[in-house]
Each structure stands twice: as structure tokens, then as C-alpha cells.
TrEMBL record:
<feature type="binding site">
    <location>
        <position position="208"/>
    </location>
    <ligand>
        <name>Mn(2+)</name>
    </ligand>
</feature>
<dbReference type="GO" id="GO:0004784">
    <property type="term" value="F:superoxide dismutase activity"/>
</dbReference>
<dbReference type="Pfam" id="PF02777">
    <property type="entry name" value="Sod_Fe_C"/>
</dbReference>
<keyword id="KW-0479">Metal-binding</keyword>
<comment type="similarity">
    <text>Belongs to the iron/manganese superoxide dismutase family.</text>
</comment>
<dbReference type="InterPro" id="IPR001189">
    <property type="entry name" value="Mn/Fe_SOD"/>
</dbReference>
<keyword id="KW-0150">Chloroplast</keyword>
<dbReference type="GO" id="GO:0042644">
    <property type="term" value="C:chloroplast nucleoid"/>
</dbReference>
<dbReference type="InterPro" id="IPR019832">
    <property type="entry name" value="Mn/Fe_SOD_C"/>
</dbReference>
<feature type="domain" description="Manganese/iron superoxide dismutase C-terminal">
    <location>
        <begin position="139"/>
        <end position="237"/>
    </location>
</feature>
<dbReference type="Pfam" id="PF00081">
    <property type="entry name" value="Sod_Fe_N"/>
</dbReference>
<keyword id="KW-0560">Oxidoreductase</keyword>
<dbReference type="GO" id="GO:0046872">
    <property type="term" value="F:metal ion binding"/>
</dbReference>
<protein>
    <recommendedName>
        <fullName>Superoxide dismutase</fullName>
        <ecNumber>1.15.1.1</ecNumber>
    </recommendedName>
</protein>
<keyword id="KW-0934">Plastid</keyword>
<feature type="binding site">
    <location>
        <position position="120"/>
    </location>
    <ligand>
        <name>Mn(2+)</name>
    </ligand>
</feature>
<dbReference type="InterPro" id="IPR036324">
    <property type="entry name" value="Mn/Fe_SOD_N_sf"/>
</dbReference>
């Protein structure tokens, strides 16, 4: 994804010389892909790609207003506030900011808000009105290739979600090295971006994502996502982009 909007324009790609700062000297070369912008910039909240009542009855407008308009907005505000105090990270795309602040597993203070901001944008775009059912074309074929069947994948995704302890996320990712799809879970704000995996879809397993609509019934929430909400159109688009970086081997499976 990597989308962000800025108050002032800066170059679309942050390919710069190393930033050397005593505060971040332990980061070594992690900042070589980011640029300190010449003007103050800020990330902005991106509106979901549908009306806030469009996912009903499976996700209510009330939940979207609280989740997108409250929790997601708060992550963004905290992130911009932190960057306003120390703008050395300004100039990164949001993808780069997440990777840099993860700091190889020793996260910087900005990481949680940056990652949650990214995760939520990806989550809204992992759903669509009238979603669910089954993927088509190459996405289905790749799932069948890597999981044995779509039902196997679905069972794996649901099981992984329901065994996620505490707060976190469940993801379908494309593993670059293994050249295959896998279901993974992450804790708190962690995103597979930091492991250099390519996310395809995700599901928010923080309680604020489902307690209003499902009264704490995680299983009903997860099944509603898989059966009625997940956007296989978004997955197809993301797989198409991923194939530019990953050779999925034989048989050649077109995504579209």
C-alpha cells in the first residue's frame, strides 16, 4: 500500500544518504531509505473505500465510526504529534516509516502508531460490500496450490484468528523466499511488512473491531469476515503487484 497524503509535497521516493543522529545512531543504516523533508509534512486519514454503512449488517456504521473515526484517527494523531516533536523521520512513505521504526525487533517509540495506521488502512481495503464467498482466477488457484483447497485455507485462517492471544492481526501473506501463500498472525501492531512478507489480506483481532457488533463472539466475527466481508478483488490486485517481485513458479498461474 504505502499511501500517504501530505500537507506539503515532497519527492515520492525517499532515496537518500544516511541520516546520522545521536538519537538514532544505533539504527546504523536503517534510515538510508528515508529523507528529512525540507518542509513540515503530516500523514492524513484516508477514508475507507465505501460508505460507513456499506458493510452492514456484518459490520455496522456505529463500529466504523468508532473504529475508523476514533481508534484509527487516534493512531494517526499520535503519530503526527510524535513526528512533530522530532521530524527526523519525515519524508518516509508510511511503508518505509513502519520498517525503519521497527528497528529489527527493537521498536522505536513511533512504531506502534505508524504500524497501526498502516494496518488499518490495509484492513479497510481488505473488505468490500458484498464480499466473502470465494476468490476467482489465479488467486483461487494459488490458494489451492499452497493450501490444498480453499476450504483448507479458510479453516486455517479461522483457526489462526481464534487462537490469536490478546490483541493482534491475522494475515494472508505471500512469503518471498518460500514463494508461497501462508496464514500468519501478529501481536499488537506488528505487520508482516517488517519481515519483508507481502500482505494480501488482513483481519483486525483487536477487541474494538468486533465488540459492538458481536458482543465478544470472536468466532462469529471471523466467520462473518470470511463469508461476507473479505475483498477478493483487493486480494487479486495485491497478488498482481506481488507477482512483479516474486516468481511463483510452475504452473504459471495468472492472477487476472
Amino acid at each position: 500500500m504505502g499511501w500517504c497524503s501530505c500537507i506539503n509535497l515532497f519527492p515520492p521516493s525517499c532515496q537518500l544518504s544516511e541520516l546520522k543522529s545521536t538519537m538514532y545512531e544505533r539504527q546504523k543504516k536503517l534510515f538510508d531509505s528515508c529523507q528529512r523533508a525540507s518542509k513540515v509534512v503530516a500523514y492524513r486519514l484516508k477514508t475507507p473505500p465505501y460508505k460507513l454503512d456499506a458493510l452492514e449488517p456484518y459490520m455496522s456504521q456505529r463500529t466504523l465510526e468508532l473504529h475508523w473515526g476514533g481508534h484509527h484517527r487516534q493512531y494517526l494523531e499520535y503519530l503526527n504529534r510524535a513526528l512533530g516533536k522530532n521530524d527526523i523521520l519525515y519524508g518516509c512513505t508510511i511503508d518505509e516509516l513502519v520498517k525503519v521504526t521497527y528497528n529489527n525487533g527493537s521498536p522505536l517509540p513511533e512504531f506502534n502508531n505508524a504500524a497501526q495506521f498502516w494496518n488499518h488502512d490495509f484492513f479497510w481495503e481488505s473488505m468490500q460490500p458484498g464480499g466473502g464467498k470465494m476468490p476467482e482466477l489465479g488467486v483461487l488457484q494459488q490458494i489451492e496450490k499452497d493450501f490444498g483447497s480453499f476450504n483448507n485455507f479458510k479453516e486455517k485462517f479461522v483457526e489462526t484468528a481464534l487462537t490469536t492471544f490478546g490483541s493482534g492481526w491475522v494475515w494472508l501473506v505471500l512469503k518471498k523466499e518460500e514463494r508461497r501463500l501462508e496464514v500468519v498472525k501478529t501481536s499488537n501492531a506488528v505487520t508482516p511488512l517488517v519481515w519483508d512478507d507481502i500482505p494480501i489480506i488482513n483481519l483486525d483481532m483487536w477487541e474494538h473491531a468486533y465488540y459492538l457488533d458481536y458482543k465478544g463472539d470472536r468466532e462469529e466475527y471471523v466467520k462473518a469476515f470470511m463469508d461476507h466481508l473479505v475483498s477478493w478483488n483487493a486480494a487479486m490486485s495485491r497478488m498482481g503487484r506481488a507477482e512483479a517481485f516474486v516468481n511463483l513458479g510452475e504452473p504459471k498461474i495468472p492472477v487476472a
